[in-house]
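tool_call: predict_structure(chain=1)
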Amino acid sequence: MGERQSTLPVYSEFHLETGLTVQVEVPGSKRQSAAKVVGSDEENLIVLRLPNDAATDSGKLFKGNSIVLRYVFDGIAYGFQCTSRGTISTPERLLFLAFPAIVATKSLREHQRQRCGFPGELLDGDDSRAVHILDISTTGMLLQFFEPPERLDEEEGDEVDDTFEPAETFPVDTTLSIKFSLPGSTDALASECVVRNVQPSLEASRFRGIALTEPSEELSEAIRKYISAMTSVHDG
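tool_result:
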């Protein structure tokens, strides 16, 4: 459980992204309804789209009432209570909520994941993309893409269109390869992988959650040693 830091957008701390499905519940009620996150107003409001047949009682979503949201994102279960700012029914049924002060989280992963920050290379046949590895475990990673800078054609001197559209590149279930070296080591490591997670919002579309496909024992052991070393540093 951690308190929201005023210096950071709260959605970057608990990953409440546009397009995410959440469960809406009124405390004391046994009814729940699935809703879609459709946006937010900086750090003031969360906006949800409710289905017309939502099981949650409309009369209990009035301004000032407490609402509980629960959802799972990238292997982490989130839950928090916030205050309703009111609803509208046309043109769509929307629920407006104040940002929470406290968020409870619980990891659903079986394998320890270590936050990190080092480069890697994602391979798709003959095509390759530079990526930043943001966290790592023996079974997967979180990757961030960087849009390549414009470059000039060496012969003609004209600009080459290197535009990278991350939202349309490497969708879920795409099979790829990842190459990298762990910090403090020059050993080149590689594994087949598959894209497991893509976020729909524009900014978050530059991130991919990947699962390593049958990683070698050598790779798994190297990652375990790296995580153990990093954990010892933080605990010390």
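agent: The chain has two domains: 2-107, 114-235. Proceeding to next step.
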